[in-house]
Write a structure and sequence with these properties.
The protein has 186 residues and is of the alpha/beta class. It has a single domain, classed as 3-Layer(aba) Sandwich (Rossmann fold), CATH 3.40.50. A seven-stranded mixed β-sheet has the order 3-2-1-4-5-7-6, with helices on both faces. Strand 1, helix 2 and strand 2 form a beta-alpha-beta unit. The longest helix is centred in the middle third of the chain and has 13 residues. The chain is globular.
């Protein structure tokens, strides 16, 4: 059974399956939010041998994630306070993750270069960085400020990653997958 987070604007389980989340993996959701829209389905998918790090800058959000995880008996969820625009801001071992997810938070970043460095620091070479964001078109909802897929790709031009795939993440969202290169983070 997949825990639903209350909205069907984007199907987190379908997205997680699409980007290759599976049993035993370790991943982080940057800017997870109180609903843990991707956190809880991911925790169920990676199982007891995997781990999901729920990163957010708001302590009340992390406390809510922790309470919900305990209530659901999902003991593989680890709330981590972090400002994702700060390099070395997350207390997670370097190159220890298979996947980092940034969903609907691209416009919240004040420093995309540092965001990319931090995600790249955490993902193992060959691992994936997944960006999900609102389509840049006339929609009945969503933020006023949006990045088109091509604008988002430009934000992630770096020797640390290479674009791997692009996909439709639902009627209102697009997805981009970047692969972590062997290059070291300075």
């Amino acid at each position: 059974m997949i825990i639903r987070s209350g909205t069907e604007l984007i199907d987190p389980a379908a997205v997680l399956l699409r980007v290759g989340v599976r049993e035993g993996q370790r991943l982080a959701d940057f800017g997870c939010g109180a609903l843990g829209h991707f956190v809880f389905p991911a925790a169920q998918m990676v199982g007891g041998t995997g781990a999901v790090f729920a990163l957010d800058v708001q302590q009340p959000v992390l406390r809510h994630i922790e309470r919900t995880a305990k209530s659901a008996q999902l003991f593989n969820i680890y709330p981590v306070w972090s400002d994702f625009d700060v390099y070395r801001g997350a207390d997670i071992a370097p190159h220890s993750l298979d996947l980092v997810l940034l969903a609907n938070n691209l416009t919240l970043s004040q420093n995309h270069g540092e965001l990319l460095r931090e995600m790249s620091r955490l993902v193992r070479p060959g691992g994936r960085i997944v960006v999900i964001d609102w389509k840049d078109e006339e929609l009945p909802m969503g933020p006023a400020m949006r990045y088109s897929p091509s604008q988002a790709k430009e934000l992630f031009v770096s020797p640390l990653v290479r674009q791997y795939d692009e996909f439709d993440a639902g009627p209102y969202h697009y997805g981009l997958i970047f692969l972590r290169t062997e290059r070291s983070v300075a």
